[in-house]
Fold:
Amino acid sequence: MIKTIGVLGAGQMGNGIAHVFAQYGYRVFLYDIAEAQLEKAVNTIRQNLERQAKKGAIAESLVGETVGRITATKNMADLAGCDFCV
Amino acid sequence: MHFMNPVPVMKLVEVIRGHATSDETFSLTAALVAGLEKEMAVSQDYPGFIVNRVLIPMINEAIFALYEGIATAEDIDKGMKLGTNQPMGPLVLADFIGLDTVLAIANVLYDGFKDPKYRPCPLLVKMVNAGDLGRKSGRGFYTY
Structure:
């Protein structure tokens, strides 16, 4: 059973991939070499979720829950326990 | 797994069977795609997989049509949009993807297959070198 997902790279594709896995209940470790990129990615995910909630596509409560399932990290070793990596 | 951009919106995930991918890994990946309520298209591991293999040469050909003076950007897009029921024409789509990204993928096909049919249009190369990258830079085939 896959429960934790590692996402390598927090750019345009990485933030979207982390977003959907977290939205569907997976625990996500989002990796990038740059702190600024990780911060930007998590902000983008939050903004996109808020937009989805505003449109009624997802429940308001899912915004915080989803972001809460994402751990941004610069440490590749944090992905060692992941069941699946993208 | 090859997701489409923007990931939360696009329904498709290409699932690539690498040379050494086991059936177990493949089934597990297919189940993940279904769990995200997305659709899967399965591809062997060759440059561009399915979508970029077909899309990028189409965009590149639209750029060649513009480069050769066949038609205006507006008419190329109008022709493809209304003539083939695409939601947007290839040049406006290229601006949306980013011309640097389009060129990078075109080069993946060109370098990967070593086949001149994939050569990127010189106009695309010129625009990228000049910093006209499409929507994100404010100018590409259109101005934003």
About this structure: The interface with chain A takes residues 1, 3, 5-8, 28-29, 31-32, 35-38 of chain B (CB under 8 Å). The beta strands of chain B are 2-3, 12-17, 39-44. Residues 2-44 of chain B form one domain.
